[in-house]
């Protein structure tokens, strides 16, 4: 029997290091599949369709939602964001785990979906709000107004920390990376995530019978 | 708020390496407390009261059971075995995890007790029955009859593998040891096992309010 892939949900306020951690996890485990979100927002300089996001018109996005092709979706700052379902289901059936870099709204929807029992959810907290703001400002790409909006969103995001299975405080990126790997490695050792065990134990029983 | 200690249950047929693994875990984490079982069986050469077991008369053992001082107990090969409750509760309140080297009967009783939600249970399988028997015989202390009895008990023990949270196949002791450490480290990162997080997030919220 094939192992069903896990849905690994990583959430955090922006600036807490989530995207860097997601990249490091992807580099560590080449079997991991990253769930590229669809969005109606305009691409930023350097962003590429299908890499950072699938950039879609509002009409195209709404059609995907209407046809049940979104695992989760939500509106943030007037734009829609969502996770297309098809690639996730394909990965699960292949026994590959999918990594989601999404916010609490998406996390909540996936946890409450029929795929909820395959979810491992991890929330990454910043060591302090001062540090969070410093990291946001150091990107130097956004206006004060945009930063203020992001900080308000961060406060809302953090208020959902207690809905996650695991919580990390990212005060050291290497340590947080190691912790994520530990969580993922342990979750894969759960009995109900190792379908081959049944066959293995049947083999042991045949050995007992043959003695 | 103080973290409540975990109850880590390690079960396996004898000869699967469980006791060696338990010793290695204890050496790795000095905060871990080993639950010494009480038994009515006679000490074997080299065994010491309070180290391998608390050796008790049947009357003393039955008194402990009657007074609710046993977290779990069972009869195996005509002898009683059980885990005294007092030291476990003391460790939990101190925030220390307790390691139990017990069989499926004990595991089942603790999982179904009021302490069940603090349990992390791990079953260790041998790579093969031939290897299990080889390890049992290499101890060279027991008669053929005793070995046969142990092998029958092993078969019964293995039949309960699917009641455990995690399952390992011990075909390499160092690898199995690393896996156990990974499981324990991850379980300690679960949100509901980190009571200090609430206070930490209250601190972040105060920082938001002060901006």
Automatic annotation (TrEMBL), chains A, B:
Q: Which organism is it from?
A: Albidovulum denitrificans
Give the main EC class: transferase
Q: What is this protein called?
A: Guanylate kinase
**All residue ranges annotated as the Guanylate kinase-like domain in the record:** 5-185
| NCBIfam families assigned to the protein according to its UniProt record, in alphabetical order | guanyl_kin
By sequence similarity, the record places it as follows: Belongs to the guanylate kinase family.
Q: Which PROSITE patterns match?
A: GUANYLATE_KINASE_1, GUANYLATE_KINASE_2
Q: Which GO terms describe its cellular component?
A: cytosol
> Which Gene3D superfamilies does the entry link to?
Guanylate Kinase phosphate binding domain (3.30.63.10), P-loop containing nucleotide triphosphate hydrolases (3.40.50.300)
GO MF term list? ATP binding; GMP kinase activity
